[in-house]
Design a protein that fits this description.
This protein is an alpha+beta fold and 529 residues long. 25% of the residues lie in helices and 26% in strands. The two termini are 29 Å apart.
């Protein structure tokens, strides 16, 4: 029954998603799998025509594998050998340093997938097609009012100025570093802030004679960075924005950046100016409104971690929203979102800022060396420490600590290193469940989805069911697999829908009561007990 005291809304949704980039589109697909009604609004009239983010890491690809999108993403991506960066004085010169992107350039035993180098404008159409939920382009959020049981959003169609009101149970702000949602909530940020202004020039040119035999996702040079955009062709040049952008001859600038003697004329297609920001929002939630992706944390581009962090945000959040909306989780479970993802954002920002400073410093010093007449092989130190692209600990090894994770011995969960270096798979509570092959082509990660999963070597668990109505499946491990997880044949792991371990029983089987208690604690609800 409509409350006569409330202003009428033009539309209703369980979750209003603001922002149609990769993070918002991924959230839309995740929530669609949970049968949650969403409406996504994007202020631009179409998907981004610019390459922007270029790297889908192994963890993001695991998520897309779960959603059935990984094969389509890979079909539009570069071959694995492009998972590498190269440093050169000019694009047509030789490498003075190179580094592989771990988990991108070749398979790794820690995951059933490898990541991909692909342009954002190729990724987004695949994500858009991943769900049928409504999307409204050219529609901008201008106001938010929280009510007792929802949020009223005021939207404006940028084509005709028509104003509409949408009432949603929750709002997810995935609308970028200059987030309107974050500003309307008056949430501050912490971090370096604006680091530099950059320009991306998308152009056509035949550069294959310098790159075909030495492929890379990015070529860093003393005069900007060059990136192949699509397997069939196309390039982008990234460089600090010049002072006179109105009078800039972009084709000439790109040709000059290619280096003397290149003899190549760039056919410029598009130009975009952007700011590289570095910050983390002071909080990720206010009431029924939540932030994800760049709205929650702007991560510098060096290292390719920003978009992937946002994808992990919504993978963490969407099962919790679904649980609250479907009644098998209490609203308190949403508190675990910020508790789990805010520390990860801070760790990611620290590494990305260090990567950025290191890369800029190397390029600056190399320019000085060139002015001094040094050859490419003289005085050049490798710009990447071994840790620069060895990010597996940050990508796969993060430990969540919150009320949605139970310890099995009462001890504090270990601090994640956050340095992106040595990843050691473990089945500790809070960690991503390690990848093990259950059968030919089927990973432990493939057992997870829109449900909790009980992993155990005891077939009797398959005949037991937790009290209540939490979505739960049982997956039987071999005793060898259980041993690799640190379990006895009677032990068990309770895996959350996001693939992180919510509870562990090392040596004893969880009875119906213990399992129900664990689920109730993790979800913050006793309604299903």
């Amino acid at each position: 029954m409509t409350d006569p005291g409330r202003p009428a809304a033009d539309a209703e949704a369980d979750v209003l998603i603001v922002g149609g980039g990769p993070v918002g589109l991924t959230a839309r697909t995740l929530l669609d799998r949970w049968d949650v009604r969403t409406l996504l609004v994007e202020k631009h009239r179409e998907l981004s025509p610019f390459p922007r983010s270029r790297l889908v890491n192994a963890r993001s690809m695991e998520i897309y594998r779960q959603l059935g999108l990984a094969d389509r993403i890979r079909a539009n991506a570069f071959a694995p050998e492009f998972g590498r960066v190269r440093f050169r004085d000019t694009l047509h010169g030789g490498d003075f340093a190179t580094a592989a992107m771990e988990g991108i350039n070749a398979p790794i035993p820690e995951s059933p997938v490898i990541g991909a180098v692909t342009s954002q404008d190729r990724l987004e159409p695949t994500l858009l097609a991943g769900a049928d939920a409504p999307v409204r382009f050219g529609v901008e959020l201008v106001g938010l009012t929280e009510e007792a049981d929802g949020v009223v959003a005021v939207l404006v169609d940028r084509r005709d100025g028509e104003e509409t009101r949408v009432r949603a149970r929750y709002v997810l702000g995935a609308d970028g570093a200059n987030s309107t949602v974050r500003q309307l909530l008056d949430i501050g940020t912490a971090g370096p802030g604006r680091m530099a202004g950059f320009t991306t020039v998308v152009f056509d040119a035949d550069l294959s004679r310098w790159c075909a035999r030495q492929p890379a996702g990015v070529y860093f040079t003393a005069h900007g960075s060059f990136a192949p955009l699509y397997p069939e062709g196309g390039w982008a040049w990234f460089a600090p924005t010049p002072e006179d952008i109105e009078g800039a001859d972009w084709s000439a600038l790109v040709s000059r950046a290619l280096g003397p003697g290149a003899g190549v004329r760039a056919d410029v297609l598009r130009v975009q100016h952007w700011v590289m920001n570095a910050f983390v929002a002071e909080r990720f939630r206010r009431g029924r409104v939540l932030l994800a992706g760049d709205a929650a944390h702007a991560i510098p581009v060096f290292g390719g971690m920003g978009m992937n962090a946002g994808i992990a945000d919504v993978h963490n959040l969407c099962w919790k929203l679904a649980g609250v909306l479907h009644g098998w989780a209490g609203a308190g479970v949403l508190e675990s979102y910020e508790a789990e993802r805010h520390p990860v954002a801070q760790l990611t920002l620290r590494q990305a800022v260090a990567n950025t400073k290191r890369a800029i410093d190397v390029q600056s010093r190399r320019r000085e060396q060139l002015r001094g007449g040094e050859a490419a092989s003289e005085g050049s130190e490798a710009p990447w420490s071994e840790r620069y692209f060895a990010q597996l600990d940050l990508v796969l090894g993060i430990t969540y600590r919150s009320g949605a994770v139970l310890t099995d011995d009462g001890a504090p969960l270990p601090e994640p290193s956050g340095e992106g270096t040595d990843y050691v798979p473990t089945a500790d509570p809070g960690r991503r469940m390690p990848h093990l092959w259950l059968a030919q082509g089927r990973s432990t990660l493939d057992a997870f989805g829109e449900w909790f999963t009980l992993l155990t070597a005891d077939p009797a668990h398959g005949k037991r069911q937790a009290a209540g109505a939490w979505p739960l499946r049982v997956e039987i491990l071999s005793e060898e697999q259980a041993g690799l997880c640190g379990l006895s044949p009677d032990g068990a792991l309770l895996i959350r829908p996001d693939g992180h371990i919510g509870a562990r029983w090392r040596d004893r089987p969880p009875g119906t009561s213990a399992l129900g208690d664990a689920l109730a604690t993790i979800t913050g609800s006793t309604a299903c007990a």
